[in-house]
Batch of 4 targets.
Target 1
Amino acid sequence: MINPRDRQKTLTAVRNLKMARSAHAFVRGSTERFYQWLESSTRCNLPEGPPIWICGDCHLGNLGPLADTKGRVLIQIRDLDQTVIGNPAHDLVRLGLSLASAARSSDLPGVATARILEELIAGYQNALKGDFRDLKERDHRPKVIQNLLVQSTRRRWRHLAEERLDTVEPKITLGPRFWELTRQERKELARLVESDEIRPTLASLKGRGKDASVALVDAAYWRKGCSSLGRLRYAALLRISEGDESHICLIDIKEGVAAAAPRAKGAKMPKDNGERVVAGAKALSPNLGQRLMAAKLFGKSVVIRELMPQDLKIEIENLGIDEALRLSRHLASVVGRAHGRQMDPRDRTAWHIELKKRSSASMNAPSWLWQSVVELTSLHEAAYLDHCRRYALSEAA
């Protein structure tokens, strides 16, 4: 059992271990390093797209199947902690770096990275030319995505409960992932979900009226990913009741923190970090945006998210070159649609022309994207090896 006083120390150890497991894992967990490079780099001459909501942390693990409130599933962006109104080119570089890292982890040859980036820009540009009045996904899905969608649509509450809670009972089992709360934490969580400001929205997630009751069944501190370090992060089971009917739902309560991603000059965004995340989600990932709300807990901004059984992340162990190319094109098209739906037709056309103009005759991937990914891959590889060295020394001490 983790004592609340020891959370920070344990979280640091867990993060360091996860980031030492592979170069790809290190890239996923080092968003701030990416933006430090972006701030200091002037050599890659990134194009300046129309200011729109961008993911800000557009890597493989942050894309995947997401259900809307009615259970309909699409591949969309899953995590919007870093979302800002900014330059869409930043998402392309971040996704390119993630795909290049996954290719190297799969022992694909260097030429595969060049082709992956070609498919990325082609998929993105093709999405910008699409029909944005049609909300359905029309792109050809690679096998890994099709299999994931089939798995997603077949999932039910019991799958979510067994996966997240290690039980189908309405309780949270304490252990490596879920830690004991203090009495004050439990009291504040109950106050939050039962408050008149939050309760009606939580009830509406299950199709209940605004007068339905919401009660906290169980809750725990959630040790999840690398992002929990030093932040509020809770899992909570709620019972939503109206008349003789009641439903259990699982929510994620996560502290909203300042984004590392740079915002466009003059961009008007919510000052509250939770409200910023909700606004970005509604623009980029409508399925997720329907299930998010901002609130305050212990005086801090938090984002409340209903977890759905259909929500999954893309987990890549080993990719063949053909599958890597198809995956790159498809995910880039997902990002392209998320970006493009925010632009008017004139801006979409101008952005498409700008990207096409930047491509060379000999290689479809523009030089700014290739140079950025090569430089970032080199910097991250060196940082990863240094991280592993420091981790090994700390373990030996």
Note: Residues 20-154+316-396 form one domain.
Target 2
Amino acid sequence: MKGNVLIGQSGGPTAVINASLIGAVDEALKRKQIRNIYGMRYGIEGFMENRLVDLGRQPRAVLDGVRASPSSALGSCRLKLKEEHFPKILAQLKKHDIRYLFLIGGNDTMDTVHRVEAHCRGKGIDLIGVGIPKTVDNDLYGTDHTPGFGSAATFVARSVMQEGLLARDMRRVDPLVVFQTVGRSAGWLPAAAALAKRDEGEAPHLIYMPEVAFDMDRCVADVDRCVRKYGFCSIVCGEGITYADGTPVSASRTTDKFKNVEFGAMGGTSAAMMIHRAVCDRLKIRGEFEIPESLQMCAFDRRSDLDWREAYLCGREAVRLACAGTSGVMVSLKRPKGKYRTELGTAPLSAVAEHAKPMPRAWINPAGNFPTKKFLDYARPLLGELESFTTLRELKPKG
């Protein structure tokens, strides 16, 4: 089927989302049935406004540079598709002779490409739609892991390792540090901080994930135990942790246009802030809390090289599948048995759009405050290399 390609990016950025974009462009440039390669500026929302950029005519140096750049080069949006949007979308598809649609993103993005592809199919319009996975949360259904997760996990592990050293050495002043990761309802990213830990006394000591109900009293007791034993305490928490009744630990009451509770800066408060306040007040200690927000999502300097390569391969695979006539799927990453290596597969867009992938409860310890070895074995190959720092030996002066 001859025609033009349309590629878009949606949702939050990752350190490697542009690698997926350039992977798709590079593969499309090789295909004779593809005439032009267009990019949506600011996602499906910008497409309806006729905001396009010609990706096929970009200089090679620009494409290579974008592949090695953070954030979302095309611009992003968070538009939830409604029925009234489809006439405008169909008019734009016809106007630009779009026959191949690729969207790079998470659950909502997969829902968008699924609905557009299905709508066109129902109208008898020739359109092939393939999703390219992306999210730092790692909660996309149908894939072993998601491009973007490995790099964000590397950022988190490195940050927790280094701020843990700070808390260790500042224990006489600020023996507590709380680090908050993004991730509304999945604990994959906060759990990745555990890879920073090499010895029992090192950071992090406690990790709280959204899959387990949070108990502030138990948390304070856990911190007290750690401070008594190690002299300091390093906590990592997911932004979306809740109490047993479902109330956000952040105490935020601000919601977005999708009726989701806003966390972090947009919510005006945070789980890390509330934990820090409660622990310091009850134990009469000082400490800090860290909320890097989007930095952990797009810091290219802390990327995982494996993540970067896999993101690029996912972009290329999407175009290969589409040119072979495959539609209505998302590219997925599979995990073979034995030593880790990259394998690609597919998952139905309909299933990805409807389901999420929380961390298995069996991968979290019975106390609910740290991941198990099964998670560590799963996550370790996906991260970049972590530094190893040196500690002074406790050598007493002679004499």
Note: The chain has 13 helices and eleven strands.
Target 3
Amino acid sequence: MTIPSESPIGDLSRLRIDRDAAPRRRWLPGVAVLVLAGAVAAAYPSARAYVAERRAPEVEIAHATQVVTAPGTSTALPVLVASGYVVARHSSDVGVKTGGRLAMLTFEEGTRVRKGVVIAEIEHADIDAQLEASRRAVAEAEAGLAQAIAAHDEDVRNVDRQRALMKDGITTTQTLTGAEATAAVSIARVTSAEAAIASARARVRVAEEALENTNVRAPFDGVVIRKRAEVGETVSPFGVAGQATREGGAIATIADLNELEVQTEVSENSVAKLAGGMPAEVKLQAYQDQIYKGRLRQIFPSADRAKAIVEVRVSILDADAHVKPEMTASVTFQEAGPPAGRQAGAASADATRGTDGGAAPASDPVVLIPKRAVSDRNGQSIVWVVTGSAATRRVVALGRDRIDQVEVRSGVVPGDAVIINAPAGLTDGALVRVKIN
């Protein structure tokens, strides 16, 4: 094959060697490989640790807390929590004594009433008429008594005249006997008239009582918390058909808001933790930031076997205007403080020790951890404490239960991070990842 001379491919005379070009560095790929290998070797431990950490189980932790109290005082730690409703210790559904149509109401919700004050009235025109008729009957009976007394006096004088005439021989024995009989009859008429007056007056008292029964009076000092009727409605002591909200003829609910308490229920298994008079804290669902002081007033003497609960009442000692009946509330029962005698004795002993040159010691601190952090292994109570990213097993000595927490007497110090619900198969020194809430 002949390459034309004019073709640049066949023109070898144009080929030249560039003497000024830099020499090729054939060692660079080797250096790059070495550098890469060094970087991989240096990063391997960190990468291995990262992979191991990512494979470590994720755990939830809680910190051990400490409660320190002053000398001679109670720890006041919670022992039980229950929920219920605010009620008035003295509350009454006020109803009517007799049926009829309401003619007057003097209250609304929130009205303060005094004991004995009329708060409602039933129409009583018919009773007024009966009362007036009874009073007229009394007047009539009194007039009849006056007539009977006057007739009796005349009959007595006539007997005296007949006796005087009998002595003179002017009248007969028959006439004297007739006069005495007439006087005896007049005495009976006086007695009958007096009985008629008493009967008429009794009918007056009956009418007056019936009239009083048309009035509804407040049974005690309090506040109307619920209005159940309106003027013009017909009410009855036994309720009216179709008025289910007013069973028993109640027209209002009155409560003494000066004595409010929480009505709650406690499981039979927890009743043993409670004692009369023990302190408590009350929180309203509407005001979670406000804490009220309470005291256990009563544990009911019977239980509900269907629900396995016992009703408990807790008095609210410092209730204010925010506390209203029927509000939802939670009660945290707390340990009762030591008796006054023990407190005084402890204070005296502390003072004696202070006089001897030593400071009066404070109460022993109480360390608390969640119950879920404790597990049982080979008959020992253990917890897992997270240090850095490793879990360490510790044997602990436990004290009393505190609702969902438990006292730790040894093995854990305040601030330790303990694992809650430790995963199965966890070993001492194993890596863990702390769950971030």
Note: The domain at 78-88+260-334 is CATH 2.40.30.170 (Elongation Factor Tu (Ef-tu); domain 3).
Target 4
Amino acid sequence: MKRALLITLNEVRLYLQDKGDLAFSLLLPIVTFALIYGAFGGQTLFKATASVVNEDNGIYSTQLIEQLDKVNGINIELITLAQAMDKLDKSDLLLVLDIPAGFSATLATGGKAQLVFLQRGNGGQEGQILASIIRGIAEEMNTAFRVNSQVKSNLLGTGITEDRIDVTVSQLLEDERQKPALGVTEEVVGGIGDIVNQYLPGIVTMYVLFALTMSAQVIVEERRKGTLERLLTTRLSAGELFFGKYLAAIARGFVQTLILFTLSYAVFQMFTPITFLESLFIVLVFTAAASALGLIIASIARTADAANWIGVVFTMFMVMLGGTFFQVEPGSILYTLGRVSINTYANEALRTVIAEGGSLGDTMVPLGIFVGVAVIALIISRLLFKAVPGGK
């Protein structure tokens, strides 16, 4: 047992010293998660730049631009009409707001002014959203004009000056904007926490399998070079060599998981101390089962390339059926097929603990499956394990 542990410690030391292995095992999972988070877990706030041609430069055009600039996520870009037409022609812009000359004067005299949208095609999705926001601001201004006109009409002959009416109505409307009688709040569903909970378990289990593929590849290469045969010329037995390689594979996958979970805990605060330890235990048992399967690959493959391809196909099969990147509908054919993937049970167990507030007691079925897979796979791989081609 002691000699097997020495092999394990040596394998882990070599793993930590190999910059290529570390980059693949640690940096690649982090980059993968960052890309998925960027694609599906980004900001929910709409952000855009509104290009505006202000040919009026009057009080009401300025007011319109100021109101638009107050909208969260929108930046204002003032350009000339010539610049707008040039950018639209080159498709650098898809929609421009044109405030025509005389806009403010027309409104001041009680006339009906028009805003113009210069757009290429349908203006694009972003342009359509901007146009909708601008129409909303224009409608607010139009409501203010109607209220002001109605108040003046009702107070006609009372001796109250129009300037006082304008100031009072403007103040009341501003108060209403700040504290509306009917407010709207946003409740984000499927935000940062859900994205992390959904994808992190699958990414962790996927790269544990990839790491074990690399371990299988190393064992095959050592067999080809005669390294395993030379080890057996010492007092080390085949069983101790086999068990040392098995423990090394578990340690390798566990070290990778520990670093990823620690980073997730620091960045997203997704664990409590208890769930952190429970998640590590689940992954440790899962890694033990996956390592045993990895030894089967190492035992049957005759070349490093064969071990690599068998491992990649095996990993992707387990990942796709395990619901790593998408939710599998219960009762579907894919859901039924997914019951043969150990990733399915690992992902379910981790989400039970991390996202659903469960405990290890709620994951007894997955843990039992991992133990069963580990025992059966270890027996099979030990029967197949050979230090040299044709040897035992």
Note: The beta strands are 48-54, 74-78, 95-99, 116-119.
